[in-house]
Amino acid sequence: MGGFVDGIVLHQILQWHQMLSAKLPPDTLLNKEVNMFWDGIFHAFTWLTTAVGIGLLWRLIYRRDAALSNRIFVGGLFFGFGLFNVVEGLIDHHLLKLHNVREISESQGLWNWGFILVSLLMLAGSWLAIQKGRRDVHRQLPG
Q: Could you list the residue ranges that cross the membrane (predicted)?
């Protein structure tokens, strides 16, 4: 889900960057088309991983030992979102330098590290929510 938020909000709506915009600035129609193609590949991968996640979740709900709670579910969604952002941010923004969070900025590095910091905070908060949800579920178990 985090990949969709990143792709839809940052790539398409705000147009802060595209998949290869640091390597291939979208300043010509051809460069824009190439970037759009790789944004599409990114969205296809995001869709595929989301579909796999939904399949795994569907299988999980039939297990008797599964700890099901809204807090664990929402925490898990945001944990995945934060984890995606950390991995994508470190690989695409820092290691491969494919694009920056805010391509047209005098402080690209600040935007990139801020993205990682917000994502780490999201990971920490969601992990705490998952742990609280697990404790709540275990308290509700009989015996």
A: 40-60, 72-91, 111-130
Residue 64 token pair: 């008797």
Amino acid letter, residue 39: D
Candidates 70, 66, 46; CA nearest to 56 is: 66
Domains contained in the chain, number = 1
**pTM, entire model:** 0.86
**Domain assignment of residue 55, given as a range:** 2-140
d(CA 22, CA 100): 7
100-121: pLDDT as tens digits: 999 999 999 999 999 999 999 9
- Which amino acid makes up residue 102? R
d(CA 102, CA 141): 48
